[in-house]
Design goal:
alpha+beta; eight-stranded mixed β-sheet; 5 helices; cytoplasm; QueF; NADPH-dependent 7-cyano-7-deazaguanine reductase; queuosine biosynthesis
Amino acid sequence: MSDAQHSPLGKAVSYQMQYDPSLLFPIPRQGKRDEIGVKGALPFMGVDIWNGYELSWLNARGKPQVATAVFHIPADSPNIVESKSFKLYLNSFNQTRLDSADALLAMLRDDLSRAAGAPVQVELALPEQFAGLRFAELDGYCIDNLDIEIDTYSPQPGLLHCDEAPSPVDEALVSNLLKSNCLVTGQPDWASVQIRYVGAPINRESLLRYLISFREHNEFHEQCVERIFMDILRACKPMKLAVYARYTRRGGLDINPYRSNFSGPPPGNRRTARQ
């Protein structure tokens, strides 16, 4: 294991079309968590939901098979998997003969669990299931139409503040204006984000300014969501808080991190229109 600078990101690589689990590149989560003051017991639980749209292999007779895949990597796993290495790994199945989709499923679970350092759940959707896949937007009040002025494009938690209210509110606020950049290449990462909380009402203009302030920030998806979670937790002190981001795909993969400090059903995995 090593840091992102030693990953395949930003480097010319040749595609392997025969199964090669060594292509997976784990990156420890703790380094970035140290930056945001998360040490010891995690102040959140959650999952990184990955969707893979470019998955293919050969059956035992050499005929190509296709599927989409959903990967659930727990937030308490010690490692993330660098996304380009993930793509290269999935493509290494392209000319690999397998007896069944179940054989593929078992290999994916084993390899990704080893890389993440914790059990990874994997689900496959075969072509006969494609018609059942649906779109849905994040539920909640969209704050994007607020008429604000901003010239700050690096994360500023000081922008966040709450309004006075006689009692706590229970609401979900949504924005489609989250943009950050890849930690290594600087390529843009686009996302919609949902902030669900119980507590003093978060000032919506301050929240929108804060989310937009990520626009020139370089960090992986999972790290951005944890930074957002911790900044809101410290600035607004909600009793309950959940942050869920749906990032647009790159290289046939989208990554959708979810962090929460209260138990409840996991977030849905309906892809948004931009995904």
